[in-house]
Specification:
seven-stranded mixed sheet; about 25% strand
């Protein structure tokens, strides 16, 4: 069994992969109002794809605790703007949409460094360069250990979710079925 995790759309007819984990929206999904958009395409052709929901895409603002030293308390989303926002190029709507949920428009929302991937943005967050809006699963351990903090406890579910994808006709193959059973049981334990 071959697994691929990527932000590129999977094509089970072309790509050497049996299972993929992607974040995005199902083709029949209605756009969520007041949720950060997610413009990532998960699949080139949905006609023979089976999708299992793994978890919602929940974004949280996080920063290095040192960034908060000597600053006034963070009481609302506007207060984060003074700390600097770190952007991710593949989710360029994340911060503006997150602020839109709170009815806030400010030119400073678009400012700040933009990185090509979450892991790069997360490195900048660890270095105290600003506040990142990062999917919760990527930062749970850092928050639990105190390496990162939630300057404002405002988790926001995006318009997408994480899915386990495979060919519909292969979902019951022994190796794929075993993997699906395992990952779905892990999902259920986490919730």
């Amino acid at each position: 069994m071959r697994i691929i995790t990527s932000i590129l759309p999977v094509n089970f007819g072309r790509d050497p992969v049996d299972v993929a984990i992607r974040v995005g929206q199902l083709p029949q999904a209605q756009p969520m109002r007041d949720a950060p958009r997610i413009d990532l395409e998960m699949v080139d052709d949905w006609s023979s794809v089976h999708a299992d929901l793994l978890m919602p895409d929940v974004l949280v603002p996080v920063c290095n605790p040192s960034l908060l030293e000597g600053t006034p308390p963070i009481r609302n989303p506007e207060d984060l703007l003074s700390l600097g926002l770190i952007h991710v190029a593949t989710r360029n709507h994340a911060w503006p949409d997150w602020y839109h949920v709170f009815g806030i428009t400010d030119e400073r929302i678009q400012k700040g460094p933009a990185f090509g991937h979450f892991f790069m943005a997360l490195q900048a967050v660890h270095e105290g360069k600003g506040v990142g809006l990062i999917p919760r699963p990527l930062v749970e351990e850092d928050i639990a250990s105190g390496r990162l903090v939630l300057p404002l406890n405002q988790a926001t579910e995006s318009a997408g979710a994480y899915y386990l994808l495979c060919r519909r006709e292969q979902k019951n193959m022994p190796a794929i079925q075993k993997f699906r059973k395992w990952i779905l049981s892990e999902r259920d334990l986490a919730h």
